[in-house]
Design brief:
Elements lengths: L3 H7 L26 H9 L13 H13 L4 E5 L2 H10 L7 E5 L4 H13 L3 E5 L4 H7 L4 E7 L11 H10 L3 E5 L17 E5 L13 E5 L1 H14 L5 H11 L2 H19 L5 E5 L9 H7 L6 E6 L4 H14 L4 E2 L9 E3 L1 H5 L17 E5 L5 H15 L1
Parallel strand pairs: 2-3, 2-4, 4-5, 5-6, 10-11
Antiparallel strand pairs: 1-7, 6-7, 8-9, 9-12, 11-12
Helix pairs in contact: 1-3, 3-9, 4-8, 12-14
């Protein structure tokens, strides 16, 4: 079988029917009708069509679908405008009013709001469980449970869900499973290997890799992707031709980028652990991570996502230290998002404490001294030196 590195460059080339080595950007909303009336009708309704109307498909999106499906070892994949479009479309293709969904306590912030506010408002019941405790998933199953939705490693706590255990439980109870695989990337983790039914990605992150586009992907069986595609026609979050082309370009280097990012992050996390001024380093690749063994079982690499908790006599001091560190850093840029070639750092408590539960000011979900880091592909010596000078300046 052809390897991932090759698929990233060559899969789905049949969708480029020009003689250009790099496919053109199909910057068009609509396509000339071809063939008989029957053929036109099947273009519109039969399947994902690359040549009908943009909401139905685009040749670059079709090529991307082939590549991303290969990456996730799924039959098919659908590309959409954002990761949130992938999440909402995939979930709304699975459940209707009266159904019940099991989700984790820790999720990407907007997904969290989708599960806490949007689904219940449309008559879909949601139970939030501790992702590290398989008994909680089992205990939450009801007669009307249709979906278990997972995220591992989760944002920003970097907790791991046992994919195989949840998949087995779900299959036994005929419940569909979806995993947000954004943090891991398909280079490091392929949830379908463990019996999971479908995967979603914010392709804005590692898949795109250059912080220059937003996109989302849904991967699964042909049947599920067809259902999701039909939902996407109504929800309407189509991936634009330009972003589609940028994503195709970004994907070519995915395996190279992830190799370097994995290496940089492991080196950095190991170096940061025990450093003065830092109370705690959380990285799934460190033996000190409470779920390191599980991570090692289901992941091939440990990603570029890590977090540090700054020391301080109290929360306020830790908060002040975190703010000062953000100001002093030069290479690590204070910005949301992740998975790009550049290293980014964010302060979760400022951004996301309001989206979490318990989200009370007296007991915040995220410690005030916590910083989340997305490690990029800069030289490791420069990354270390930047953190070193910033840490020294807050002592
Ligand atoms: C960013 C992100 C999303 C949402 O993706 P967008 O492209 O921003 O809509 C979903 N899940 C995770 C884990 C993310 O990091």
């Amino acid at each position: 079988m052809r390897k991932v590195e090759t698929d990233l460059i060559h899969e789905g080339e049949q969708y480029n029917d020009t003689r250009a080595v790099t496919p053109p950007i199909y910057q068009t909303a609509t396509y000339l009708a071809g063939g008989t009336m029957e053929e036109q009708l099947s273009d519109a309704t039969g399947t994902k069509s690359p040549y009908f109307y943009h909401r139905h498909g685009n040749p670059t999106n079709s090529q991307l679908g082939e590549i991303v499906a290969k990456l996730e070892k799924s039959e098919d994949a659908l590309l959409l405008a954002t990761g949130m479009a992938a999440i909402s479309t995939a979930v709304l293709a699975t459940v209707v009013a009266g159904d019940h969904v099991i989700v984790q306590k820790a999720h990407y912030a907007a997904a969290q709001v989708f599960f806490r506010e949007f689904l219940p408002a449309y008559g879909i019941e949601v139970t939030h469980v501790d992702q590290t405790n398989i008994a909680e998933f089992e205990g939450a199953i009801q007669k009307n449970t249709k979906l278990i939705y997972l995220e591992t490693p989760s944002n920003p706590n970097l907790e791991i869900t046992d994919l195989e255990a949840v998949a087995q439980l779900a299959r036994k109870n005929q419940i569909f499973t979806i995993v947000d695989n954004t943090f891991a990337s398909p280079i490091n983790q392929t949830p379908l290997d463990f019996g999971i039914d479908a995967v979603i990605h914010s392709a804005t992150k590692y898949l795109g890799g250059h912080s220059d586009l937003t996109a989302g992907a849904i991967c699964g069986s042909k049947e599920f992707i067809h259902k999701a595609w039909r939902r996407s026609l109504l929800l309407g979050a189509s991936l634009s031709p330009m972003d589609s082309w940028l994503l195709l370009r970004g994907l070519k280097t995915l395996s190279l980028r992830i190799k370097q990012i994995n290496e940089n992050a492991l080196t950095l996390a190991t170096w940061l652990e025990g450093k003065q001024g830092i109370q705690k380093v959380t990285y799934v690749g460190l033996p000190s991570h409470p779920q390191h063994a599980l991570a090692s079982k289901q992941m091939r690499g440990f990603t570029g996502m890590l977090s540090i908790e700054l020391a301080g006599e109290d929360e306020q001091k830790a908060y002040a230290n975190a703010q000062r560190l953000l100001e002093k850093l030069d290479i690590f840029a204070n910005a949301v998002s992740l998975g790009g070639v550049e290293s980014l750092i964010t302060h979760p408590a400022s951004l996301w404490n309001s989206t979490q539960q318990p989200g009370t000011p007296s007991k915040p979900a995220f410690p005030l001294g916590l910083l989340r880091i997305s490690v990029g592909i800069e030289h490791i010596d420069d990354l270390k030196a930047d953190l070193q000078q910033a840490l020294e300046s807050i002592q």
